[in-house]
Amino acid sequence: xxxxxxxxxxxxxxxxxxxxxxxxxxxxxxxxxxxxxxxxxxxxxxxxxxxxxxxxxxxxxxxxxxxxxxxxxxxxxxxxxxxxxxxxxxxxxxxxxxxxxxxxxxxxxxxxxxxxxxxxxxxxxxxxxxxxxxxxxxxxxxxxxxxxxxxxxxxxxxxx
Length: 160
Hints:
The chain is an alpha+beta fold. The protein has helices spanning about 25-40, 75-90, 115-120, 140-145; strands spanning about 15-20, 45, 45-50, 50-55, 60-65, 100-105, 110-115, 130-135, 150. It is globular.
């Protein structure tokens, strides 16, 4: 069952998929339609899953699942990954590579490989105060409070 992301409880499980580039307005519209259709049909062991999503900065797909009535299973998670993979293929984007880092440069969201981000930290091109996106958050509460944080408050701090 598709619900508005803002209506999901803070305990909802979160998956964040980070694109390696900004999505165009046309791509965003099509991806939203695809997400709507996917979530309406998303099930786990025959039970409808209550989920929502939001797309942030034309780059992050944030999928939230209210596990109050039904939890994600291996099969339902596999189905969501297959859906994300289909987006990767259709739009020639990378959404599943966790070895990349996104961070803010003013209002612009930059995207670098982890190796390049480490080099930038070493060269002081980014600092402990650089706003990074901690895509390892597990639930909506963490997402709302700890996703967009200074590098010193996330796993990125080990490189500073």
